[in-house]
Amino acid sequence: MLRVMLVDEKPERSSQLERALADAGYEVVATLTGRDDLRARIAALSPDVIIVDMQSPSRDVLEDMRRIHEERPRPVVMFVDETDADSIRAAVRAGVSAYVVDGLKGRSVRPVVEVAIARFEEFQALRNELESARTTLADRKLVERAKGIIMRRKSLSEEDAYQLLRKSAMDQKRKIVEVAREVIAMAELL
Amino acid sequence: MTRELVVGITPLADCAPIAVALEHGHFAREGLRVRLSREPSWANIRDKLATGALDAAHMLAPMTLAASLGLEPIAEPAVTAFSLGLGGNAITVSERLRERLTRAGLPSAAPPEACARALARLLDEDRAAGRAPLRIATVFPFSMHGYELRFWLASAGIVPNRDVRLPVVPPPRMVAELEAGAIDGFCVGEPWNSLAELRGAGSLLVAVEDLWSRAPEKVLGVNARWLERNGEIHRALLRALLAAAHWCDEAENRPELARLLSTSHYVDAPLETLYRSLAGASHFHTFCAGDANFPWRSHAMWIATQMLRWGQIEKPLDLRAAAARVYRADLYRDAAADLGVPAPREDEKCESFGGARFDPARAAEFATSFAIADLRVASDELAAAQHAQVTDAR
User: Fold this and answer.
1) Residue pLDDT, tens place only, A82-134
2) What share of chain A is helix, strand, coil (3-state, %, to 5)?
3) Contact assignment for B44 to A54 by CB distance below 8 Å
4) Residue of A63, A81, A113 to mutate, interface with B, max B Cβ within 10 Å
5) CATH code assigned at B296
6) Which of A102, A187, B245, B368 could form a disulfide with B17 if both were Cys (CB 3.0 to 4.6 A apart)?
7) DSSP per-residue string spanning A26-72
8) Is A78 on the interface with B (CB under 8 A)?
């Protein structure tokens, strides 16, 4: 069974990845953050594969271990198969890097990296969704405020105030929220 | 307007020309739309440049050579035509190590050679007493920091691979690790030496400027295949950076530069630290003056000699031809000419580190001349691989 070590600054993501790897039959020997002493932990646990979040500065520590001949931990090489440009690109896009103990390169390690890429992508998609939900809510609040200002200033109904906002946005080929933001800024100025 | 370009930077003071080119509209004036991507590791910079996730990047000068000489996992040659500045590194030691050196009779502000000799004596003492070797951190296997530190140590008879440990620590974590006692010193770029001093965590022992005045450091790196398709964009990037570098060098602009770089978009460190790095009494950075942006082929050749010396290059190579493929002085000259900025006519000059003169005409001899080395290439084979002239290497 391959022994996998995770280095991830985001515990929500790494716990999901841990479970996914365990389900796929891999042993996760440790989940660390960049504040742990990687060198010592790798020496103690001798993982076969190390999956690293690209947002972790610890990558450069691992890079160094690839080259040091005199130190105890076996040298690690980056990625699964250096000739497989597509999987490297997919990993970089997903924000995952993988270090593999030399000699283990090839087919046996690849699925581990694929599980990691899938989890990282899923996590990112979820974040983007949350982010966009949050922006929509914030945008809606801005439009509401602008509507309120127009209703008071122009003594319009809510519906008419909204139509006015919408029309001026369309005329200016801009988003409604941008116009709303301007209305609010103006109101604060006057 | 072109498509959006993504330029990678790392949190170090010498990303200054890129920061200023963006913030002061130099990129925009060249019709370039640029987004910066702040990367936490050099490995990210390398991989994102190799896979096209970055168009160009703030890069350690030796990384461009390492990528092109096949020393990295992804076989994607990198190229540079622009040095982002010169100098900026220093060797800082913990307060504890500084006290030991002082007790051993080393005065403050001693010359670098005296510091190295004093350190060598302490290491002998430690070895005799069976103590663990001192740990002095650098930033990446292919870095000027690593070569500078090793050159300085070896000059006093210290064998880097035997007498000390040289771990890699990401620059923003250097000071914390020094405070925690996880390392005894480091060789790093600014503002991290200044931060260690301001926090009382360490003392600056050697400014690299005193070993090699105007040493190569960071470059703007691009992928070689990207460059083939984006020659005009690259030339425009260089023009914007030249204008920005010029601004960065003016003494009256340094306080403003310090303010800009201290923000979380760039270095994310206290303002007074950046102020000390850029506008303080010690001179760390040259961003433009004296052709600082010119990609001297002799810089790349010196770097390659150290890669040979420490066993990173394991096959004989023609040093000048290899350097010429990576350091594209011709492209710099084109961009400089567009702006009417004069550029050196020569591609090489003699360099000097701690009094060790490097004549690029005798690069192979230099590479194999060191008593303390980890050479993997036979000197006669290396000599045989040199050719007198660069027959158009591109």
Assistant:
1) 567 777 888 899 999 988 877 676 667 888 888 999 999 988 888 888 888 88
2) 60, 15, 30
3) yes
4) A63
5) 3.40.190.10
6) B245
7) -EEEEEE-TTS-HHHHHHHH--SEEEEETT-TTHHHHHHHTT-SSSS
8) yes
- Using CB atoms, which residue from A55, A67, A97 is nearest to B141? A67
Provide the Cα torsion B157, B160, B164, B170; round to 10°: 140
Strand partners, B37: B8
Helix (H, G, I), strand (E, B) or coil at B59: strand
Co-location of B95 and B182 in the same domain:
yes
ipTM: 0.90
Q: Cβ separation of A78 and B73 shorter than 8 Å?
A: yes
Q: A10: which chain B residues are within 8 Å (Cβ-Cβ)?
A: none
Give the number of domains in chain B: 2
Q: Is residue B312 part of a domain?
A: yes
Contact B14, B42 (CB under 8 A): no
Distance, CA of B350 to CA of A70 (rounded, Å): 34
> Is the same domain home to B250 and B375?
yes
* pTM (predicted TM-score): 0.89
Region B234-252: mean pLDDT is 97
Q: Is residue B389 part of a domain?
A: no
* Domain covering A133-189 in this structure, CATH number: 1.10.10.10
B140 and A82: CB-CB below 8 Å?
Answer: no
| CATH 3.40.190-classified regions of chain A | 3-127
Nearest alpha carbon to residue A175 among A147, A131, A139:
A139
Higher pLDDT, A87 or B256: B256
Multiple choice CATH, A3-127, 3.90.660, 3.40.50, 3.40.190, 3.10.450:
3.40.190
For B271, phi and psi rounded to 5 degrees? Answer: -55, -40
- How big is chain A, counted in residues? 190
Q: Are residues B229 and B338 in the same domain?
A: yes
Alpha carbon separation from A141 to A154, A156, B256 (Å, rounded) = 20, 19, 37
Residue B203 and residue B242 in one domain: no
Shared domain for B22 and B45, answered yes or no, is yes
Vertex A142 angle, CA A140 and A146, to 5°: 115
Q: Report, in angstroms and rounded to the nearest whole number, the Rg of chain A calculated over CA atoms.
A: 25
- What per-residue string of b and e applies to A129-151 under the rule 16 or more CB within 10 Å gives b? eeeeeeeeeebeebbeebbebbb
Bridge pairing between strands B33-38 and B4-9? parallel
Contact B283, B209 (CB under 8 A): yes
What is the domain range of residue B300? 4-85+216-384
Q: How far is Cα B296 from Cα A104, in angstroms, rounded to an integer?
A: 41
For residue B108, being part of any structural domain is answered with yes
Question: What is residue A82's predicted lDDT score, i.e. its pLDDT?
Answer: 57
Domain end residue (candidates: B210, B232, B261):
B210
Mean pLDDT, chain B, integer? 95
Which of B193, B210, B227 is the endpoint of a domain?
A: B210
Q: Estimate to the nearest angstrom the gap between the alpha carbon of B215 and the chain centroid.
A: 8
**pLDDT value at residue A36:** 82
